[in-house]
Write the structure tokens for this entry.
Amino acid sequence: MLDDFLFRAGLAGVGVALAAAPMGCFVVWRRMAYFGDATAHAAILGVALALALDIPVIWGAAAIALAMALAVSALTGRGFAMDTLLGVMAHSALAFGLVAVSFLDNVTIDLMSYLFGDILAVTRTDLVAIWGVAAVVVGLMVWRWQALLTATLSPDLAFAAGLDPRREQLVLTIALALVVAVSIKVVGVLLIVALLLIPAAAARPYAATPEGMVARAAAIGSLSALAGLWVSLTADTPAGPSIVAVAAVAFVLSTASAAVLRRV
């Protein structure tokens, strides 16, 4: 069954959705959208590094995404405006990555597949990496769930409970870098943050608890991946953007229906 490219693509989409769901919720709660954008854009530099060193792309992307995330965390609160810092680093990393790719004379690559994803070309090795990272991220979130929630709700409350908010921020940073690295194959560098944010935002109106929001985000993300693949197959549209477009439709329907129910 794994020889069927469409089946592999569906498994990859669901795996990324499961990994992205808890991270997307924390990105929404902490208002870290631009932080995620900077990390995702940096990944293209990791792609160039991986191709130059002839190592798996996922490891190069993960290394550079993690380095970017750690650099942003370290510089935060040191006289730099957060939005300005993230904007400079995100677009600079993307530009340097694209320039670096142009120097790889002996390597033939499809740059569009890294910018917008190529889920239909997912291999068995990619599936192992995606589901392995999904297991690590979900396990990490389960292990640090209460601490992460407390630090997200109030750093002062976290300190009072004996927690270190910066340590919890580091946990999120590592998890985000891993999710970004495995998402490149599915939706590409330019759409990763959309896959993080949109399912979480769509789940928010109907979530009574944080855990419920994560579960709904995972379901919406998974269904968006499968429905996006179906749209891509039937309408001959790009798979990655189709997945994000379906998720966007789910967000609009969720927001509109919640607004209607509030008025009833």
User: Anything to note?
Assistant: The chain has a mean pLDDT of 83. The CA atoms of residues 72 and 85 lie 8 Å apart.
